[in-house]
Amino acid sequence: MGAQKKSSAAAAARISDDPEELSRVPLQAVLLADSFTTKFRPITLERPKVLLPLANVPMIEYALTWLESAGVEEVFVFCCAHAKQVTNYLQCSQWLSQPNFSVATIESHNSVSAGDALRLIYERNVIHGDFILISGDTLSNMSLNRALQEHKERKKKDSNAVMTMVIKRSKLSPVTQQSRLGTDELFMAIDPDTKQLLYYEENTNHLKGTLSLDKMLLIDNPSITLHNDMQDCFIDICSPEVLSLFTDNFDYQHLRRHFVKGLLVDDIMGYKIYTHEIHSSYAARVDNYRSYDTISKDIIQRWTYPLVPDVLLFGNSATKLEREGIYRATEIVQSRSAQIGPLTVIGNGTRIGNNTKITNSVIGKGCSIGSNVLIEGSYIWDNVTVEDGCQLKHSIVCDGVVIKSGSVLSPGVVLSFKVVVGQNFTVPAYSKVSLLPQPTKQDSDEELEYADNNSDIETSPIAGAHDNLNGELTSDLTDMQSSAAEELGSGGAGYIWSICEGASEEEWRHSVAPVPAEKLAEISQTIDDDLDFSYQDGNAPASSGELKPGGLSDSDDDDVDANNDSAYFEKEVEATFLRAVHENVKVDHVILEVNSLKLSYNMEFAACAGAIFYSMMKLALGTPYNSSAELYNAVVNVLTSWKRLLKSYLSGKDEEIEIILKFEEMCSELAKELSPLFTKILCFLYDKDMISEDAILDWESEKNYADESDRVFVKQAEKFLQWLREASEEEEED
Amino acid sequence: MPDVHSLVNEFILKLKKRKVEGSQATARLAAVLLRSVISQQRIGYTNQAGALIDAVKAVGEQLVAANPVEIAVGNIVRRVLHIIRDEDLSLTTAAMAGLNLSAVSDDDDDDTSPDDHPVLSAAAVAAAARSTLRPPSLQSLLEDMPDSAAVPHTSSSGGDSEGKSKSADKNSRSRKLKHDVIEAVNELIQDIDTCHEQIAEQAVEHIHHNEVILTLGSSRTVLQFLCAAREKKRSFRVFVAEGAPRYQGHLLAKELVARGLQTTLITDSAIFAMISRVNMVIVGAHAVMANGGVIAPVGLNMVALAAQRHAVPFVVLAGSHKLCPLYPHNPEVLLNELRSPSELLDFGEFSDCMDFGSGSGSPLLHVVNPAFDYVPPKLVSLFITDTGGHNPSYMYRLIADYYSADDLVLQRKAAPST
Amino acid sequence: MWRRSASFILDKREDASSQQEPLTLSPSQITAPAMTETLRNPSTNVSAYYQTRAAHYGVITSDWLSQAQAAVGQHSVENEVRSSSSNAVDSGSGRPFSVIEEFNNWRKQPDLAEAVAAIRALAAVIRSSEATTMMELEIELKKASDSLKSWDTTSISLTAGCDLFMRYVTRTSALEYEDFNSAKSRLIERAEKFGEISCKARRIIAMLGQDFIFDGCTILVHGFSRVVLEVLKTAALNKKLFRVFCTEGRPDRCGLRLSNELAKLDVPVKLLIDSAVAYSMDEVDMVFVGADGVVESGGIINMMGTYQIALVAHSMNKPVYVAAESYKFARLYPLDQKDMAPALRPIDFGVPIPSKVEVETSARDYTPPQYLTLLFTDLGVLSPSVVSDELIQLYL
Question: What residue spans carry the region label Disordered (chain C) (predicted)?
């Protein structure tokens, strides 16, 4: 299937395209040689991501080779970070001198995102027809022409079909809720007949199994298939409109988060995005260290055929494939006693000492590996020196690194260029080591970052949150940093970066190392009590009480981001609300905005309700008062004036209980002056039937088991509750 | 010659990307390419053959390195080299014969330095040169100087022999050599084009009425062979094993039915079940090694064993461009190609089995998809090439007259020296 | 390689060098007299086989000889014949004897194969002959070679060498020379060259053979063959990773010597007793053996035990590779094991064997072609059928 089909396909592409387009435009492609993320720091501080070797060959080679064999004729390589390096590399490579395949580079130094890049390309006005948009770290062997034809046909029918996304089936790991490429769970709603993309949600790992679609979707489309087992290959076939779209909405930065979602959300322009699923062929993008590991292994296992070391010798010397997936370059000096395990690639001119064990690893050119070394699942680049008795497990070691004898790399370690690890030193797990000190401000280096997942957004509150969350970790890291020289043991050189830039909890998710077993156990644990949480919550409100703390607690300590999210969310909601008050916006609009917030943060209604109520109270408190009576009035005013807003989120008992809890929390914590008014406000809410009676009763029953301190307000409200109970009994009687 | 270079590079890229499929196509392309290389090569008056040979060898090594698995390329390169040597020899001996009549007369003293050819009679030289074209044999062991030395000798002696003669026939000769070589290469290309027909012509002698033929996968040679028999009004039935994982058997079955042949499609695993009803197994090959072993599409070794078990003749059809002068060592690995596992199973379906994020990080599921089998000579009953039917043990003879001994190293050189 | 009876002096020296226990010395002491004995009267242990062979398809048949004599001229022939016969009988000073001495001198050189030595010796004969015509020269040569062959009938490569050379003298392009002297000198020069070729042969074979050794393979080796050793050496130099099983090689324990040599190259090597072959065959990837002689059937004659190893390997579908120089191709066609000149060699059992007990002392066996996979020769890699073709082509 693979090669033969491709060959015929490529041939077909060249022929069949010509007649149907009278004005023949060469098939163009835009290759973004910059990922606009910092996932691969600290390595990417010194070398652009696209030049990092994947099974001993720079990623960009794979991308270009694929484009070339897929019948693309013109490629524009957009370099931003380390533009010089990229252009120099291309100069040296044979790509610029290909017969019918032209590669042009576009340099830019002020682009901070894919959006900027595309805008710049638009200004250059080099794209004349449909073009392929990939980033330089994408690797595929698919044949484009079916996707292309589909795209063209759609375009003929409907000029709004501007983009075709290539997707591929790939199941999630049930435990970690992330794809094998280490990316978060991805939800897509696709129209099964037209293959139109209707909904695209990346960061779903925080909403606990609930996903809310806009009901308009269901109204508009007769049928929808909802996938969480699809992998976005980040290969897009775009019409020229895409570029202009980017230019029109200059705030589009990220391809998916802004552009795709933007198109999907606003149906004013009515642009449509379609998907093309590939089955037999391979496509994936090196997004993080995990996917680096996964894709390398896919290459070694030949899923990317013919993009495999022994077939495509990219200029470098011939590699032979031996039994059980051992790839050897021709000149290797290997001791007889050395054992080279399966699925290993060994580069040219590498020498391996006695009794050294190597398994599941990639070793670059000109490395010298001593005796009694254990290398397992690691990626060692060129000219690395590993002295005797070292142990490397699931780590990435860049060019020119020296690992002195007896030292150990624990899983997930990344050693950037020319780092020296001292003798008998153990590099702690998941630590990233570089000769360059960690930049204090994130955008101080040229590879600019844009929000990639919310844990990456650098804002003081979560940074703080992290610090006190994983205090011990950051602290020992900091005191390591204080002694920069001795960080890597005697004779070592390099700084160990503190991890808190990306959420440290995320490290195990995205590192080369496989997820440690205890971690898996932990997650699966939390997952199933999440499950029974939601389950019990569903049927028995009475019992939901003792579970709620549990639910909250784990949402605190095992899932930081959820926590941060809610923190944000509340801020945002409050901001919106205040704006609404001051600019007296219509209630409906406020509701809309809050809804959108809710969507983008994946919050439940309860949270919204809580947040709104909270912000109302804040408002009320904000108004000047000198007696509790005035305060009460203020509260009442606010509540009455924004009753509708609040009620629109009080769909059920849970929300109401949520409000009460929130209220209680506020009274106890920030607004002591409110506490005396608790009961009054409570029954006011009851009168205005914002809160139903059994909600209150449930709240009370929950509190039954809580400790005294927690029950002050229950006591305070005792009379009211009493009365409520009687009322209910009466009702039951008659 | 930038022109040729670009051609060569293009072809090399094609080979690397596995864009040319089928050894016949590859062989043809290679031959055409080499022809243009030769025609572009400008050669001096002395030692033209040497120049041509070097040129061809240089290109040849690159080609072989580009896709060592596609054996046909190497074969064609060697064939062309052989052609050059052959043509050069015929010219040289002709020249020498003319020369000696004059030479012997003047110096009849007894100086016997080995490389003073004029003293030797033309026949001796011819013998000497012949020994360089034949693989070394017991005679050549004793008769003349070691082979490797021989070619430059004869050609150079041819060169200085003309030192005496007039410059006119220099040019004529240099042109003649090239011309002859290109002629011969054209013939070679001709042969490659017609090999299917050549083989198909013999179909009638092998396929008889009411026979049952088994084949696996799809091969153009086999298809034409069967059709030829069909056209000769033979009525017979064909069992086609589908040939997983590429299932080209399905295509073959379609073709056969279109030609009005009784066709039965079976799974590969059903071969042992069906073999007892089969009169003859006819299959194509990827390459035929010097010992009569066959590099064939995967699955054929099983068929061969089944055939042997039930004493069914196992016939292999192979164009002469598939004859490889090398002996297979460790063929299962070295002469094999592992294709993409996606031909076997759907990546999406099994993606969770290949999640390296959990567990030891080493994949538990390996999918291996070798393209070829090695069928040992003792399982093959008959080879049908465009020169007729041959016994496996006879293959080396064919190879002996297609290739000259000191071209064999071509591939070996390519492997370690790169 | 199994050393034939006459060459045990040499053996002794080498054994001494590769510090061996006296056990292997014992045969040499015993056979030293045997050799002298063979020197005294050639026609002792000449097997019936050899005689019939000489009679039927000897290199120079008797009728050819008579024709030749006729050609040379009656009178000269008479005394020629008489003198030669007298030489043969009163085995005093005469050509054949000097040939043997010559031969022995040549053979002193450690790694000069016996066949080469023979041819060098014959070359010396040519040099020192006063013959004035090709015919006479050939007659002398024939006598010389015959005496050489009959001197040690058990040595196949010696016979083969002589046959090869005689073959070359009688019918090759050498005869196409106009005048006798140039022809003669050419013969000598060819003979010299032959020595070099035979030395080159080993290197060629090594180059061919080492391709078949792939990383991580296990090779079973039987007997001590210089060619096989050369192959393994080359492979080791080319950084091939392989390990070797050596059979002990009773009775002269030549397996030990091979294992020593390999250990020097730090190739991982393991010694087996001869009877452990089948036991360890499943680990083995290929079998490498040398050969005393390669016969017309394409089979080989080699040290005792080769046959059974080949059988075991065959039944387990392991390839059996033979490394042999082309001058070992002999014009024999053994039909079974007993169909050869028995090369006897005493076996030391360590304990006294009662005289009633018979001991099989034959030192070599015949391995039929169907059990051999390929032969590595300096003519290239050949399958057994090719070998027989070669021989037939040559002596047709």
Answer: 1-25
Residue of A nearest to C242 (CA): A336
pLDDT at C308 (0 to 100): 94
pLDDT recorded at residue C268: 92
* Residue A182: partners with Cβ closer than 8 Å, 6 or more residues away: A287, A288, A289, A290, A291, A294, A509, A510, B357
* pLDDT tens, residue by residue, A352-371: 999 999 999 999 989 999 99
CA dihedral B341, B342, B344, B347 (to 10 degrees): 110
What CATH class is the domain B202-336+371-417? alpha beta
Tell me what percent of chain B is helix, strand and coil, each rounded to the nearest 5.
Answer: 60, 10, 30
Buried b (16+ CB within 10 A) or exposed e, C340-350: bbbbbbbbbee
Domain count, chain A: 4
Question: Residue C134: inside a domain, yes or no?
Answer: no
* Residue B170 pLDDT exceeds 70: no
- Domains of chain C: total: 1
B265 forms beta bridges with: B240
- Whether B301 and chain C come into contact, CB under 8 Å, resolves to no
CB contact under 8 A, C179 and B290: no
A729 found inside a domain: yes
What whole-number distance in Å separates Cα of residue A562 and Cα of residue A7? 49
Q: Does A404 touch chain B (CB under 8 A)?
A: no
The DSSP-derived string for A300-336 is HTTTTTTSSTTT---SS--EEEEGGGEEEES--EE-T
- Which residues span the domain enclosing C299? 206-348+358-394
Percent of chain B whose pLDDT exceeds 90: 28
Q: Quickly state the pLDDT bin for B315 (edges 50, 70, 90).
A: very high
- CB-CB: which of B121, B136, B412 is closest to C379? B136
In a domain, A247, yes or no: yes
Half-sphere exposure of C62 (CA within 13 A, CB side): 6
CA distance B33 to B11: 8
Residue B398 corresponds to which tokens in the numbers above?
């064919």
Query: Which of A3, A297, A303 comes nearest B18 by C-beta?
Result: A3
Same domain, A35 and A122: yes
**Mutation site for B-interface testing, chosen from C179, C378, C385, C387 by largest number of B Cβ within 10 Å:** C385
Q: Can you list the alpha helix ranges (DSSP code H) found in B134-263?
A: 138-143, 147-164, 167-201, 203-206, 220-231, 248-258
Element (H, E) at A697: helix A693-704
Which residues of chain A are within 8 Å of residue C265 when distances are taken between CB atoms? none
| Segments of chain B assigned to CATH 3.40.50.10470 | 202-336+371-417
Closest in C215, C239, C268 to A322, CB measured: C215
Residues A572, A534 share a domain? no
Its pTM surpasses 0.80: no
In angstroms, the separation between the Cα of residue B361 and the nearest Cα of chain A is 5
Q: Is A333 within 8 Å of chain C by CB?
A: yes
ipTM: 0.75
- Residue C379 falls within a domain, yes or no? yes
CB contact under 8 A, C383 and B292: yes
Question: Each residue of B5-21: pLDDT tens digit?
Answer: 888 888 887 887 777 77
Total Cβ atoms within 10 A of residue C70: 11
- The helix/strand/coil state of A496 is strand
CATH of the domain at C251: 3.40.50.10470
Residue A685 lies in a domain: yes
Q: How far B351 CA lies from chain A's nearest CA (Å)?
A: 5
Instruction: Determine, for residues C189 and B112 on separate chains, whether the beta-carbon distance falls below 8 Å.
Output: yes
Q: Which two tokens stand for residue B28?
A: 């043809």
Q: Which of residues 113-132 of C touch A (CB under 8 A)?
A: none
CATH topology classification for B2-194? Four Helix Bundle (Hemerythrin (Met), subunit A) (1.20.120)
Residue A51 sits in a domain whose CATH number is 3.90.550.10
- Does residue C383 lie within any of the structural domains? yes
Q: Which residues of B touch C181 (CB under 8 A)?
A: 110
